[in-house]
Design goal:
The complex is a heterotrimer. Chain A is an alpha/beta fold. In chain A, the strands form 3 sheets. In chain A, strands 6-9-10-3-11-12 form a 6-stranded mixed β-sheet, with helices on both faces. Chain A has a 4-stranded antiparallel β-sheet with strand order 2-1-4-5. In chain A, α4 crosses α5 and α5 packs parallel to α6. Chain A starts with a strand and ends with a helix. Chain C is an alpha/beta fold. In chain C, the strands form 2 sheets. A 10-stranded mixed β-sheet of chain C has the order 2-1-5-7-9-11-13-15-17-19, with helices on one face. In chain C, strands 3-4-6-8-10-12-14-16-18 form a 9-stranded mixed β-sheet, covered by helices on one side. Classes of the chains: A alpha/beta, B alpha/beta, C alpha/beta.
């Protein structure tokens, strides 16, 4: 479903991704780990098409479509979802308004009728409940005044509502206590249906106790340097990124 | 508590002495003949005289500005003298050894020794006494680097092409009432030219001293930084303590050509008048710089003196990617009045400006920030950030903020913030509980308040400025 | 002096009725007024050329629209004024207050009006003086002590062509009383109006106030709202401005008693070549009062927005809390914003802050919306409008809030987003 070949990308003329290859089949969960500055977050931005992230070489296709040719919103409509590490606050735009607009844009793209206000509200309430957010939250501005945990749960709620085919979770565990982590993980796990695929970007192995990956990749200096199964994550947890060489160890310290 | 602050703020003005120096001083009054005489004494070419006369004729048509938040007895322009020079300067001493020792003494007393070996290493000084430049140090060393640093009266004769090209190019003759007056009667000041790609090897500095009674000081400074050059320049000013007000109407023009960088710092300590508002300098100054592509001009000022200040060092950001900065500390006490700030005119693309203004009001003074940020229609992606903070010491003073913001470009971003605070009882208590006396505590708090600006000053002067503030604050604690 | 002003004075002197005393005072003051040019701070960015070109004539009855636009769900006592006359009346005078039209005032009421007129409005407002001199109709509302009026009063001024209109509103809210007044104005006809309102809030009074200056095109508007706020009284005011060839609103709040507070929200949404100028002055003349003011505007096309927000803390006004924030969005290269938040402070133990920004939409927010599949154009509308929507949703009257949201959104969407 997602196929990345020899991807090179830069930010402000600085190379961050330097020849990345990744193949993801429907229903798989891939974890991407790596030291700070390895390019983990950049990958999500490049795949989603953020301004300022320049692709210099290589390709990325989602379900056979060339992602790199598409606008940000078109990629989203093709089923790519990015759960942000630091979701932005948008005062004045209510969550409800935002989510309805978003859900209906995707439905339209799939050739479905837009949801009526009542239908949408029902769905939104259910999703709210699932990630344990209070209902009045729908009336508030997007992420406005939310705690870190609420923002992360809001991202997962959006994922549930938008039913994407590929979800990229960018450090969705950072800054969460155990209870909140459980909520986020439950939300993600509930969306694993054998078809939907996930890229779980994380710095720590902890999240992977809750969301079991099929594959674990180590990203360092813009490339995947090592791949394995879930046990690779445990190895990293135990002995750090020492195997990458001294430079990484120090940068971690 | 506030009695202590009051007390900490009322120390004597240390530069208030008058020196018995024999001078040739014009009789009071202003007309075209006075301008012709100034021009003749300075041995100026015809074009310069013409330029002055045009300025004078425009000035006659103009009205003194009244929009500033200051209130003062208007100057009688016929009651002051427009030229005063120490007699000993008549023969134009060729080296420091020929300069009247009494004159050098004045500067020694002010803490500015002019003998090169005694000076702060790495600072060249032009010393202007009333209407003439007394001496300019380190000229040879600067000349080696191709840097011109000399009195403007000399530059008019020696480098007429440069002066003719740039004088009035940033502050036109008719820019405003005081600039027009200055253009007509300016007597001396400094001229600086930094050639292409040269990083000026030392700090340049001009020290202005008003000594004679009933004279006005009208200096004019012109700094041209050619492509890719760097210069840091500092001016200082003092005057004797007198019961009459004296006028200082200067013009400073900066030209930063492509990729040039000018840093202009001022420590202004003109006589502020006594605690009842008697005497003191009227400091009505026009300072402006123009930035071409990728150039940068940074103004830093520490204003503690003058009875009335009217001063807005500005940047015209004409070139793409150019940068303007304004860092200001203005302290008023007694009956001082300051209306100061800046103008950032963004014309080019990707231009950036930063304004940090710290106003401290004590006693019965009034301290106003007045600024303009203008984003022109072609200033795509231009940015401005402005922070104006006021600190009030005592309940008889005033602190005011008048920022004008104009934007004509949808991609430009302007942000202005202003806050006001006082030296709180809690802060004082904490400092005192830790063993500091009230004066030290206030000066510490004030210094902390000004830190963002002080760090922009050249190192030697940052210390100076901190001390100056401390002196000025003495007696203000309550 | 301009020809127009001389005509105003002559016309004011010609009027002969029970308000002549007030008129004479005004015409005498106007005779000494220097006609504002751009060098005068108050009119620096708003030229009065369109006014200078007019000749003075008071509007009579009009054939034009004479009823106010309907605000769904609003149950109010509503009066509309067209061409200096009452043109429509809906609902009943709420129980508990006295409501008087100037034209129907009896002698006692005339005395009350004469006594109150001009007592709140500072005398330096040129067009306020013009209103004093030429007003022919007005409303006087008196709310007795400790009376809570639940039904809002809506007063609508409809611009009618050719004539000048000078409506006056006087509201006296006695101690502990509570009332809500909606002042709105509409129309695009070639006309000039000064719509002046004065409010006295006695101790612990509460006022929920609205002023919507929705004039467009050729309808010139130079109006004002003035408030005197006594001890522990509370004022909330919501202002909306469209622009016309000349539209200017002056708002003055003066605290006369301690522990009072005012909350001012203003929105302006300008299209085409419109001009809207909002000047607010908050006089903290006594200690311990609190002001919060938020003004936000979106300026499109060739429009021009002027904002001047002054906070003046007097010598003894210790423990004042005052905050003012003005934010602007420019949608076009030909649009202009001139903003000036001012602080003038003469007391040291106060907390004052102001901020002003002119900005574009945050790239991060736009990206976020795009990653959720929302189109760029829709995302821009949501974000831009979200900027003022935040203030609309704070409006206490739900019917008014919904109506405004709908109306402003419609206006916004029709503005070209460039």
């Amino acid at each position: 479903m997602l196929s990345i070949n020899n991807l090179h990308a830069s930010v402000e003329e600085k190379q961050i991704i330097k020849g990345l290859n990744l193949e993801i089949k429907p229903g798989e969960v891939h974890a991407i780990m790596g030291p700070n500055g390895a390019g983990k977050s950049t990958l999500g931005y490049v795949l989603s098409g953020r301004d300022g992230y320049e692709v210099n070489d290589g390709s990325a296709t989602l379900n056979g479509k060339d992602l790199l040719e598409l606008e940000v919103e078109e990629r989203a409509r093709e089923g790519l979802f990015l759960a942000f590490q630091y979701p932005v606050e948008i005062p004045g735009v209510s969550n409800m308004e935002f989510l309805k607009e978003s859900v209906n844009a995707l439905r339209e793209h799939r050739g479905e009728e837009p949801l009526t206000a009542a239908e949408f509200l029902k769905k939104a309430k259910a999703a709210c409940k699932q990630v344990q957010l209070p209902l009045d939250f729908l009336k508030r501005g997007v992420n406005e005044g939310f705690s870190g945990g609420e923002k992360k749960r809001n991202e997962i709620m959006q994922m549930i509502l938008l039913e994407p085919s590929l979800c990229i979770l960018d450090e969705s565990d950072s800054g969460l206590d155990v209870d909140a982590l459980q909520v986020v993980a439950d939300g993600v796990n509930s969306q694993r249906d054998g078809e939907r695929s996930f890229i779980v970007v994380t710095h720590y192995q902890r999240l992977l106790d809750y969301i079991k990956p099929d594959f674990v990749h180590i990203l360092a200096d813009g490339k995947i340097v090592k791949s394995g199964d879930a046990s690779l994550a445990l190895e990293v947890e135990k002995s750090g990124y020492a195997f990458l060489g001294k430079a990484y160890e120090e940068s971690e310290a | 508590m506030s009695d202590q602050i009051e007390q900490a703020l009322s120390k004597q003005y240390e530069a208030g002495f008058y020196s018995e120096i024999e001078s040739d001083t014009f009789e009071n009054g202003l007309d075209e003949s006075v301008i012709r005489r100034i021009s003749a004494i300075k041995n100026e070419p015809e074009w310069m005289l013409e330029w002055r006369l045009k300025a004078y004729r425009s000035w006659l048509e103009m009205e003194e500005p009244e929009w500033a938040h200051v209130d003062y007895e208007k100057v009688d322009y016929q009651a002051i003298s427009y030229y005063s020079s120490p007699k000993s300067m008549k023969d134009k001493p060729k080296s420091l050894d020929e300069v009247d020792p009494d004159l050098l003494d004045v500067y020694n007393k002010l803490g500015i020794p002019l003998h090169e070996q005694e000076m702060l290493a790495g600072v060249a000084v032009d010393a202007v006494f009333d209407s003439v430049s007394v001496v300019t140090t380190f000229r040879e060393k600067l000349e080696e680097a191709g840097v011109i640093f000399c009195p403007i009266s000399e530059a008019i004769q020696k480098y007429p092409e440069l002066v003719k090209k740039y004088i009035g190019s940033v502050v036109p003759r008719t820019d405003n009432y005081f600039a027009a007056l200055n253009s007509a009667v300016f007597t001396d000041g400094s001229f600086v030219y930094i050639p292409k790609g040269v990083r000026c090897p030392m700090e340049l500095s001009t020290y202005f001293r008003i000594n004679e009674q009933n004279t006005g000081q009208f200096e004019r400074t012109l700094i041209v930084a050619d492509e890719g050059s760097h210069v840091s320049y500092l001016e200082g000013c003092t005057a004797p303590q007198r019961d009459e007000n004296q006028l200082h109407a200067a013009v400073v023009e900066l030209v930063a050509l492509d990729k040039a960088n000018i840093k202009y710092s001022t420590v202004q300590n003109w006589y502020p008048g006594d605690e009842n508002g008697k005497g003191g300098i009227y400091n009505f100054v026009t300072k402006r710089g123009i930035c071409h592509n990728d150039a940068k001009i940074s103004w830093t000022q520490v204003e503690t003196g003058s009875s009335v200040t009217w001063k807005y060092p500005s940047c015209v950001l004409k070139g793409d990617n150019s940068i303007g900065e304004f860092y200001s500390v203005a302290l008023t006490r007694g009956r001082q009045q300051a209306d100061t700030g800046t103008k950032m005119i963004h014309l080019g693309k990707n231009t950036r400006s930063t304004i940090i203004s710290k106003g401290i009001s004590a006693g019965k003074s009034n301290n106003a920030y007045r600024g303009l940020v203008q984003m022109g229609p072609k200033a795509d992606n231009a940015r401005n950030f402005t922070q104006c903070d006021s600190l009030l010491i005592g309940d008889q003073c005033g602190a005011h903020t008048f920022p004008y913001i104009e934007s004509r470009n949808p991609s430009a971003i302007v942000e202005h913030e202003a806050t006001t605070s006082k030296v709180s009882d809690e802060q004082m208590f904490l400092c005192q509980q830790r063993g500091l006396d009230a004066e030290k505590a206030v000066s510490m708090i004030v210094n902390g308040f000004c830190k963002e600006v002080f760090k922009e000053l050249p190192m030697e002067f940052a210390v100076e400025a901190g001390k100056l503030l401390e002196i000025s604050l003495e007696g203000s604690v309550g | 002096m301009s020809q127009w002003l001389s005509e105003v004075i002559a016309e004011g002197q010609r009027q002969n009725d029970w308000l002549s005393g007030n008129r004479q005072q005004a015409t005498a003051a106007l005779a000494n007024v220097k006609w504002p040019v751009r060098r005068q701070e108050a009119w620096r960015f708003t030229p009065l050329v369109p006014v200078e070109k007019r000749t003075v004539s008071l509007a009579g009855p009009s054939e034009q629209q004479s009823t106010a636009p309907v605000i769904d769900g609003l149950e109010a006592y509503s009066l509309s004024f067209t061409g200096n006359q009452l043109s429509d009346e809906q609902g009943q005078v709420p129980e508990g207050l006295t409501f008087t039209l100037f034209s129907k005032a009896d002698e006692a009421q005339q005395a009350s009006i004469q006594a109150l007129l001009g007592q709140v409005k500072p005398s330096h407002h040129l067009f306020g003086q013009v209103n004093d001199a030429l007003l022919t109709e007005g409303v006087y509302i008196h709310v007795p002590a400790n009376t809570v009026i639940d039904t809002p009063i809506r007063l609508t001024q409809l611009a009618a062509s050719a004539g000048d209109q000078h409506l006056r509103v006087l509201v006296h809210i006695e101690a502990g009383a509570k009332v809500s007044v909606i002042e709105d104005g509409f129309g695009d006809a070639d006309s000039l109006n000064t719509f002046v309102s004065e409010y006295v809030l006695e101790a612990q009074a509460e006022l929920e106030h609205y002023r919507f200056a929705m004039y467009t095109q050729q309808a010139m508007h130079v109006g004002s709202c003035h408030f005197k706020v006594a001890e522990k009284a509370q004022l909330t005011s919501n202002i909306v401005g469209y622009g016309s060839v000349l539209s200017r609103l002056d708002v003055d709040v003066e605290y006369t008693g301690e522990f009072a507070n005012a909350n001012l929200n203003a929105i302006y949404l300008l299209a085409e070549g419109e001009l809207f100028d909002l000047h607010s002055t908050i006089e903290h003349a006594v200690p311990n009062c609190t002001t919060e003011e938020n003004a936000r505007g979106i300026v499109g096309d060739r429009a021009k927005a002027v904002f001047n927000g002054r906070i003046h803390i007097h010598r003894d006004a210790q423990k004042t809390l005052a905050e003012l924030n003005n934010r602007n969005l420019l949608l076009s290269r030909r649009a202009v914003v001139n903003t000036k938040p001012e602080l003038e402070i003469y007391a040291d133990d106060v907390r004052c802050a102001h901020g002003a920004t002119v900005a574009e939409i945050e790239e991060k927010a736009l990206y976020y919306l795009l990653t959720r599949g929302i189109s760029r154009s829709q995302a821009l509308i949501m974000l831009n409008f979200g900027f003022i929507q935040e203030l609309i949703t704070q409006i206490p009257n739900a019917a008014v809030s919904d109506w405004l949201l709908h109306r402003l959104r419609e206006r916004f969407v029709s503005m070209e987003v460039k």
